[in-house]
Design goal:
By secondary structure, the protein is α+β, with helices and mostly antiparallel strands. Strand 5 (271-280) and strand 6 form a beta hairpin. The protein has 2 domains: 29-67 and 102-267 and 302-409, Outer membrane efflux proteins (OEP) (Up-down Bundle); 69-101 and 268-301, Outer membrane efflux proteins (OEP), CATH 2.20.200. It has helices at 4-27, 33-43, 45-64, 106-172, 178-212, 227-230, 244-265, 303-368, 374-409, and strands at residues 29-31, 71-77, 92-101, 220-222, 271-280, 286-293.
């Protein structure tokens, strides 16, 4: 007989578990797919970094439109020498202002190239938002599927335990050999192990989702949704040539071409104008000075930077072609996957799973009536579990395809 101490310890342990369960339930917060999407958009570091890059590009664009600053120069000659040039009495002082004039359209080309970079940066924000939304939809569907598998595994364990109790009763009355009870108990242990593994997978899926939406895993309680209706699946055919990836590749190509024009203007030399006043200390007279200077482009004509910019433009054009091909492939693959997943879900929901449930019910009745062996019941249980797992997998494939199509339709 257990000691009073063991009873008290069991009682306190049960109370502690109950309090923990209540605390967990109180801390858990139902999170719909729409709420998860909003949280991810608001707190994603990927989006924050893309937005910061836009601000940086805008700052560079402002800087690119500014002309060179004027310069002031002071020059003193003919002092602290020998003879009549001793001291400052014969010195000459020149005060001048210099201004470099950019020729060849440098400032306009520089400004256009910087503005093209701004447009590309803004598109990268849209791409980041679309990617985050796709990842959240996928993670939410993965978490729902993992929880469904965990529930399915627990139900399978309960059925195995119930069957083991029936087998034990039949063994006790002599209708089954003891070996049947061992076989049923082994099935129970296997089902419990699968349920534990499924619970672990579900927790990992919730952690993955919680990471995306900047939440604590323990506080996330999923709300089951009908994904085709709840995720904003676009109607009709999607034009893959207008996807964000294609538009970004086009913007990057335009930016690369603008960079080529900017570098070509570097071959035109700038002219620096100088104007000032010169004072002669020995007579107190003053005179105006004027001058200009320009480099002679016989060695450096910016040819290296022009060649590099042309190569970058060639690479951008190649990436644009690749982006278009990839966009078409991903969109068509997602459409095909969605059609196949919808067909699988329909068959599994309307035929396969109901038939497996009925087969298990008949097998149980037949076994308890002594018409079927135990293996028939176990096989029926396995068939039902497989059918339900296939249904979960088909629904997950459908959700992934929907997420991919929404991503392809993002603008």
């Amino acid at each position: 007989m257990p000691s009073p101490y063991s009873w008290r310890r069991a009682l306190f342990g049960a109370a502690a578990l109950t309090m923990a369960a209540f605390a967990s339930a109180a801390a858990a917060e139902p999170v719909t797919l729409a709420q998860a999407l909003d949280r991810a958009q608001a707190g994603s570091p990927v989006i924050s970094a893309a937005e910061a890059n836009v601000r940086a590009a805008e700052g560079r664009a402002r800087q690119a439109g500014l002309p060179p600053n004027p310069e002031i120069s002071v020059e003193v000659e003919n002092f602290s020498g020998t003879g009549p040039y001793e001291g400052m009495s014969s010195s000459e002082s020149t005060f001048a202002v210099e201004q470099r004039l950019e020729l060849g359209g440098k400032r306009g080309a520089r400004r256009n190239a910087a503005q093209a970079e701004v447009e590309a940066a803004r598109l990268r924000v849209s791409v980041a938002r679309a990617d985050v939304a796709r990842d959240v939809r996928g993670a939410y569907a993965e978490a729902l599927a993992a929880e469904s598998r965990a529930l399915l595994a627990r139900q399978a364990a309960e059925r195995a335990e119930d069957l083991a109790r029936v087998v034990t009763t039949l063994v006790d009355v002599g209708r089954e050999p003891p070996l049947r009870a061992l076989r049923a108990q082994a099935a129970v242990e296997e089902a419990r192990a699968k349920a534990q593994a499924a619970d672990s997978d579900a927790a990992a899926a919730r952690r993955a989702l919680a990471t995306l939406i900047a939440a604590d895993e323990a506080s996330v309680e999923l709300v089951a949704v009908s994904l085709p209706e709840a995720t904003g699946l676009p109607q009709g055919l999607i034009d893959p040539t207008q996807s964000l990836d294609v538009k970004l590749a086009e913007a990057e190509t335009e930016a690369a071409r603008a960079a080529v024009k900017r570098e070509r203007t570097g071959a035109t030399p700038d002219v620096t104008l100088q104007a000032g006043i010169r004072r002669f200390e020995d007579s107190g007279d003053q005179a105006v000075v004027f001058g200009f200077s320009a480099p002679i482009p016989v060695i450096d004509r910016n040819q290296g930077n022009v060649a590099a910019a042309r190569a970058d433009a060639d690479a951008a054009e190649a990436n644009q072609r690749l982006a278009l091909a990839e966009s078409i492939r991903r969109t068509r693959d997602a459409e095909a996957s969605l059609g196949a997943a919808e067909a699988r879900v329909l068959v599994l929901e309307t035929r396969t799973v109901p038939q497996a449930e009925e087969a298990l019910r008949l097998a149980r009745l037949g076994y308890e009536a002594g018409k079927f062996p135990l293996l028939e019941v176990i096989d029926a249980q396995d068939a039902l579990a497989t059918a339900r797992e296939d249904l979960i997998a088909a629904r997950l494939d459908r959700a992934r395809a929907i997420a991919a199509l929404i991503r392809a339709a993002a603008r």
